[in-house]
Amino acid sequence: MSQPISSSEAEREEGLVLRPRFDASGLVTCVATDSKNGDVLMVAHMNDEALRKTIATGDAWYYSRSRKALWRKGESSGQVQRVVEMRMDCDQDAIWIKVEQTGAACHTGRRSCFYRSVARGEGGEARVSFVDADRLFDPKDVYHGHS
What we know:
- With 147 residues, the chain is α+β, with helices and mostly antiparallel strands.
- The chain has three helices and eight strands.
- A hairpin with a 5-residue loop joins strand 5 and strand 6 (94-101).
């Protein structure tokens, strides 16, 4: 027998109020895709402040778990993301933003962070290969030693 859905769960899933479900670290996962062709560009995290700034400014803001700091996409690199549309998943613990990407989304200088393909090799082992991996910029020239 299934658990009855609480009114707060029903409101989160069926209501029209933004009620993000942040994880224990105060973050939600965000997937950014190209608004023109649907390609997945990157996956990052947003805290409450990053989410609010993204909504307020129309620029993509994220929270860096490694640096423990808020950052606006393109702040260092100039590779800005303008949000065209934002969606939340059913239980509001993940965000999908469709963006107009200026230049590269990836800190490696590539258009997308997903530039390697994983396939099954002849013996069943994983075979990794580059796909759409051309660099649009050299990270050493842009970030001056930090990624």
